[in-house]
């Protein structure tokens, strides 16, 4: 049976934890998956794209990712939209696949709902179209698509994987400390729509640059690599 793992932000080259994990699991193959919960970051400079992606293709697994806020959305969205395992994707490489917002995927017998995007609190230091893109923020059209796709599954999935999180998860003290002013970001209010209506086993997300199991329902990831059982 194919194995699925999830981890946090890689920002293009922060792969030490993944390399260590793969070294400790020599049985892994391209039939297994690691899902990066946003801020993939390797699709950033067009002239360095092949070199940056090679570090991920060289991993023994297939890499899936939701988008975060630190992504070059112009480059990502230039890839054609395809359907893969029931949901919309950008297939960057055969072993590197972007899981688009508001999709439900059926992978290795599990249903996984994905919803990327978040607010860059440092965007005042960045330049639009060069180091920051307005497409980072989820839209209500994407929310509607997500709600419609979830309805097809009776509003029940095994896992939710996002970059940011909803308001309920932000109530946990450790995350509130890590979040700081991110508690006011609009995507948290949007993601709360899924907290209210979806039945799920566990919700994994990145964005906050900590590793913490907040409850039996919510886990925030940075370097930890967790198997979806």
How would you sum up this structure, described in words?
This protein is an alpha/beta fold and 229 residues long. The chain has one domain (4-227): Purple Acid Phosphatase, chain A, domain 2. Helix content is 23%, strand content 24%. A 7-stranded mixed β-sheet has the order 4-5-6-3-2-1-13. A hairpin with a 2-residue loop joins β7 and β8 (110-115). The longest helix is centred in the middle third of the chain and has 13 residues, at 140-152. The chain is globular and about 40 Å long.
Return the CATH architecture.
4-Layer Sandwich
Oligomeric description of these chains: single chain
Shape label: globular
| Strand line-up across the major sheet | 4-5-6-3-2-1-13
Q: How large is the radius of gyration?
A: 16 Å
CATH class: Alpha Beta
**Average pLDDT figure:** 94
Q: What distinguishing features does this structure have?
A:
Purple Acid Phosphatase, chain A, domain 2, alpha/beta, single chain, 7-stranded mixed beta sheet, globular, 229 residues, 6-stranded mixed beta sheet
């Amino acid at each position: 049976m194919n194995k699925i793992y999830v981890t946090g932000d890689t920002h293009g080259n922060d792969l030490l934890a993944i390399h260590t994990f793969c070294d400790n699991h020599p049985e892994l193959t391209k039939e297994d998956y690691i899902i990066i919960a946003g801020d993939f970051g390797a699709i950033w400079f067009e002239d360095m794209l092949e070199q940056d992606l090679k570090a991920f293709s060289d991993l023994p697994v297939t890499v899936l990712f939701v988008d975060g806020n630190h992504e070059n959305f112009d480059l990502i969205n230039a890839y054609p939209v395809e359907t893969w395992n029931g949901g919309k994707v950008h297939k960057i490489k055969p072993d590197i696949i972007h899981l688009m917002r508001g999709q439900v995927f059926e992978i290795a017998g599990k249903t996984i709902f994905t919803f990327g995007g978040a607010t860059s609190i440092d965007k005042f230091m960045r330049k639009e179209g060069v180091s920051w893109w307005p497409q980072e923020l989820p839209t209500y059209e994407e929310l509607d698509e997500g709600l419609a796709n979830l309805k097809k599954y009776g509003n029940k999935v095994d896992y939710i994987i996002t970059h940011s999180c909803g308001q309920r998860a932000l109530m946990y003290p450790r995350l509130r400390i890590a979040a700081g002013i991110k508690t006011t970001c609009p995507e948290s209010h949007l993601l709360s729509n899924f907290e209210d209506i979806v039945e799920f086993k566990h919700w994994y997300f990145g964005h906050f640059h900590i590793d913490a199991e907040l409850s039996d329902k919510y886990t925030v990831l940075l370097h930890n690599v967790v198997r979806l059982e």
